[in-house]
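Field reference: sequence -> structure
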Amino acid sequence: MTTIEQLKWPDTGLLPAIAQDARTGTVLTLAWQNRDALQATIDTGYVHYWSRSRQELWKKGETSGHVQRVLDIRLDCDLDAVLMAVEPSGPACHTGAESCFFNERAGDSWQSGATNPWPLADILARLSAVIDERTTSTAGKSYVKSLLDNPATAAAKVQEEAAELVAAAANEPDQNVASEAADAIFHILVLARTRGVDWSRICEVLESRFGVGGHDEKASRSNDRMAKDDSV
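Structure field:
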C-alpha cells in the first residue's frame, strides 16, 4: 500500500490536485496539495488544498459553502499527481462558474465561453436537472410536467418511442437512429422520474454491472424474481 510519504513530492512540497465531478466527469479545478492538505482530505472526506498565495491550508468551500465531498482519490502512474472524484455542493470556481476551465480558444486568443466544458460528458445530468425543474411548472405550459402528472401517458410514450427506435434501426439513416434513441432515453428518464428515480440511480445500476457477464446478470435477476415470488 502506498502511503503519503511514498508519493513523489517535489522540493516545493506541492503536488497538482485535480477535482473532477464524480457524476458528470467534468473537470472542476486544478489546485495544489501538500502533505497536510492531502491528509486532511483523506481524514475529513472533504477537499483541502494548499494556497500558494496565502501560504496556508484551506478547505474548499469553507467560506462559500461550496464544499466538495470526496468519493474517491487516485494517483497517477508516477505518484506525483492527485485526482479526486468529488460531489460538489456548488460552483467550483471563485467566479461562480461550475468549472474553472471555461476559457475557450478563439483563433489566436482565448475568451470566456461556456461555463461547463465538454457538455457531452454530463448531458444526462443536465437533462435530469431540466426534468426536475419542470416538476414546479404547470402541465399546460410544460410537456414534461404533463407526463410527470400522468405516469400512464409517460409509460405509453416510452413504448411509442421504443417502437420508433426499433423501426429506425431496421432501415433508416444513422441520424434517424440517433434521433429516435435520444427521444427514447428522454422519455425513459421522465418515466423514471414519475417514480422518483433519478438518472444517477440508473447510472449506479449500470456501474454495478461492469465486469459481470450479460448472461450471469440476467440469471441473477431471474433468481431474485423467483425468490421474491416464493416469499409472497
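Note: The first strand starts at residue 15 and ends at 21.
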